[in-house]
Amino acid sequence: MEPTDVITNPERLFIEGQEQLPNWTPRQIEGPAKVLILPDIHLPYHHNLSLGTAVGFGRQNDVDHVLINGDLFDFYHLSRFQRDPRMRRPKAELELGRKFFEYLRNAFSTARILFKFGNHDERWHNYILDKAPVLSDIPELEFENLLGLDKLNIEVVKDKRPVRLGSLNVVHGHEYTFNISNPVNPARGLYNRAYAYALCGHFHQKSEHSENNIEGKSITTWSTGCLCGLRPAWLPFNKWCHGFAFVEVYSSGKFSVSNHKISDGKIY
Length: 268
Ligand SMILES: [Fe+2]
Prior knowledge:
Blueprint: E1 27-29, E2 33-38, H1 48-60, E3 65-69, H2 90-107, E4 112-116, H3 123-131, H4 143-146, E5 154-157, E6 163-165, E7 168-171, H5 186-194, E8 198-200, E9 207-212, E10 218-223, E11 242-249, E12 255-263, E13 266-267
Parallel strand pairs: 1-6, 2-3, 3-4, 4-5, 7-8, 8-10
Antiparallel strand pairs: 2-11, 6-7, 9-10, 11-12, 12-13
Fe (ii) ion (FE2) binds at residues 40, 42, 71, 118, 202, 204.
């Protein structure tokens, strides 16, 4: 289709004071790459056996990338919901986070490690915005800087930016303004928003959905299980399962996804 109204000399408009929106371009990972995706760990409510199983799988398969796909921390006390004072405080969570990152860096000494924020990780900054907004632009108060992640060479991906593994779009799942879950499964909900190869965490459920478009091209979406306890006090009955994903990215941009469930330390 040709444009019907070509403006060859558009008006140049300069109005001082333009604000830049946050950078939303996806963080692109080119192949060849072997990527271990660790979803929804929710420190300090992590599930040690499942987390260790997923990390062990990554080491056995010599992954060169590790992607923490959101909700590494729980930050229970920074929630906007009702809080129980007996639950663990952010100070203890940060200490645990420090240990976790050191462990992960030792386990994958040469891998590229990325930490994409989920909605729970965003609670830290949102709490500062709510309670002390004038402090919100002090970088030293961001928890990734308190933890010294740059010294461990761990990359942070925030502002709801996707990570693209070749042509696979990886999101946490909270990036859409309304819930993408539906009565069928989260992968179907993700398909109905993304219309492209995509994988998400956030729902703590393992699912997969494929549809052919009118040209016969098959598009698949995935949602992963989680690596936290399965019966939190706020939602003891749910459809959650333990799991993680392994993605092989080829130099062509194509990829293969192994979306694993974990049960009692066994990988399915
Ligand atoms: Fe989560």
